[in-house]
Amino acid sequence: QRPVRRGFALPAGPDLRHFLRAAAVGQPGPLPELPSEPGSPPGAPKVYLETYGCQMNVSDTEIAWAILQKNGYARTKELAEADVVLLVTCSVREKAEQAIWNRLQHLKALKARRPRARAALRVGILGCMAERLKEEILHREKLVDVVAGPDAYRDLPRLLAVAESGQQAANVLLSLDETYADILPVQTSAGGTTAFVSIMRGCDNMCSYCIVPFTRGRERSRPIASILQEVRMLSDQGVKEVTLLGQNVNSFRDLSEVQFQAVAAPGLSRGFSTVYKAKQGGLRFSHLLDQVSRIDPEMRIRFTSPHPKDFPDEVLQLIQERHNICKQLHLPAQSGSTRVLEAMRRGYTREAYLELVHHVRDSIPGVLSLSSDFITGFCGETEEDHLQTVSLLQEVRYNIGFLFAYSMRQKTRAHHRLQDDVPTAVKKRRLEQLVATFREEAARANTALVGQTQLVLVEGPSKRSASELCGRNDGNIKVIFPDTELQDAAQCGAPGRAQPGDYVMVKVTSASSQTLRGVPLCRTTLSRAAASH
Fold first, then answer.
1. Residue 61: enclosing H or E segment and its boundaries?
2. Could you tell me if 281 and 208 lie in one domain?
3. pTM listed for this prediction
4. 119-143, pLDDT tens digit by residue?
5. Start and end of every MTTase N-terminal domain (predicted)?
6. Are residues 370 and 464 both part of a single domain?
7. Largest CA distance in the chain
């Protein structure tokens, strides 16, 4: 299983939009930098953080900043003010790494222009690229001072102190138990409407194309108690949507409580298998989802990224029953060809995947949207294999899709045993066809919502018009509507304009492959909207 990826459609959470949109058109870039932290000690060294890639990296940025803040650092949004620049990196594709090398060239020039009266600028590479390319990063032009892998963020203050003395410093040791459970991240969601909560790290699936087990290590889960504490804190802060994060989020297994260590493993989805033996013991994802959803009836709960093998009926039943668990599922297919799926070591056939899709739609009649990941041009993929993926897109009709051309990664099983034999031009053509097919089917799926009323969580003004607001429905689809005076559904109080974090009922009037447009009807609450349906 791979990390949550940037792609050709809608991600979860507003802070990712800038980078994801750039990635969709082949222009990787960092997430927007945030304002300086108030209350920083005078004279504190200033750190500038840039986040590249997946939602897990957003969470890692929050963890790294929480550690640095406790150790006397201040945060700045101005690159020119920084004493330390840290890039939280992605290694899932070659293009993601190239974006970092390009950024380092810019920072090299910044270092050269720095006045001698100021302390030398320290540059650090954090995350997956640090884990994968430590030696090359340290030795290439001697630009980088600090290298820290995903399990080494606690060591950042020491590494930066070493770098301050003029030496390079690195820690890329992977851990079997590090989950940062005791560190409450400093949330970075704009407006405080949404937040990501990391519940587990690493992956054991060993899909043949995937670098994640080698950059983020083996699966380990946070204790449920620490997760619930973080979600309660976010609820107290007014956050209205939490996304539970993990590379393989629904294989969550909390082993921290002795009395649950002998619990039998839940069954896999029908027709699915793993490369490892069933893991006994621990509190599972269904228990966590149940507990998290009970904390705040006005807080939406999402989770990503799951593996389709881990969808027991208990999880589907919870999603169907709880009004605040979003009726939107991510079911990463990767390919529509059974032959390619076998080469990828995904553990299922096309037929088993489609059976799961039908089971999901039968179990959750109100399921609003499905999303998926696809890789085109994998080793040995034929034109017939490609057309089977096209037909899967047509048959399932996803609302949201993340689609990529295959990029071989060193250390993976594919790198050792398979040939990257699909020409670049063919990958490009096939990707274009997949994207066109996805958009056509997504437009049809979204058009079916025209005339319906959708509950929208307001995120803020539309980027294209100050007179419009933007939010997302339960299915995580962007909804645009006019910013007008609205009555409260309970008919109490004077009319007012919707604010970020408000729920608004919107009647959909038009749709495209990525966006719904509509007319706002009233402000309401999540509970009231659920009770009225």
1. helix 55-70
2. yes
3. 0.85
4. 889 999 999 999 999 899 998 878 8
5. 45-165
6. no
7. 68
